Amino acid sequence: MKQNPAGQKLGMINEIFQSINGEVNWCNQGSIATFIRFSGCNLSCPYCDTTYAQNLIGFVYQFFSHDLACRVLEKHRGVENITITGGEPLLQKEFLIDFLCCLLQKTIVKVSIETNGTIPIPELDRDIRCIVGWVIDFKLPSSGAYNEKNLQNLPNDVTDNDWIKFVIGDREDYLVAKNILNKCDYHYNLAFSPVLPGMTPSTLLGWMLEDHLFHVVLNVQIHKLINIK
């Protein structure tokens, strides 16, 4: 068992790799980033493309927060964007926040954190919040995890760095998402993302144009289109 240096948090990491941001976030879609995939998830969505990261059984790296910051910055020197995904990163909230503090002590980067919206998003210290953008993947009926009460989990300190992404698997998902937007006044960046394969981007775009959802971005997973991780 690893010894805990100076009260640092121990985190479970599935993988660290370099790729492009295939989806919307504040670092820009298509930008090169270092990805940190956290292990463990509280959901099991039928369209999940990273089922290998849903639990803590199997191939998992253990890192203390400071060690992970050093590993990422040394191995991927010069990459200014970091994308934290899962699994569900907020299941390891204390480790995540400690890791962000360690990053900020060493350098200034742009960090995008992807979360499924089922866990309340913590308020961060102002200095940390300036380098973080949340991407909330709001779950709709086809995911099997839809609960409109999850809207209460959105961050109170919303900034221009944050996105709400609705993953659309069918017409019902689309109508539910549209109804949420009609009822609520959000100051987030908004995106609709078709489940691939299944929902064709052209079909989803047609619905968006028909309903004049001009403030919503069509998010297509470009990393899948060019066949990379």
TrEMBL record:
Keywords: 4Fe-4S, Iron, Iron-sulfur, Lyase, Magnesium, Metal-binding, S-adenosyl-L-methionine. InterPro entries: 7-CO-7-deazaguanine_synth-like, Aldolase_TIM, rSAM, rSAM_sf. Gene3D superfamilies: Aldolase class I. GO terms for molecular function: 4 iron, 4 sulfur cluster binding; lyase activity; metal ion binding. It holds the Pfam family Radical_SAM. The keyword Iron applies. Residues 28-229 form the Radical SAM core domain. This is Putative iron-sulfur binding domain containing protein.
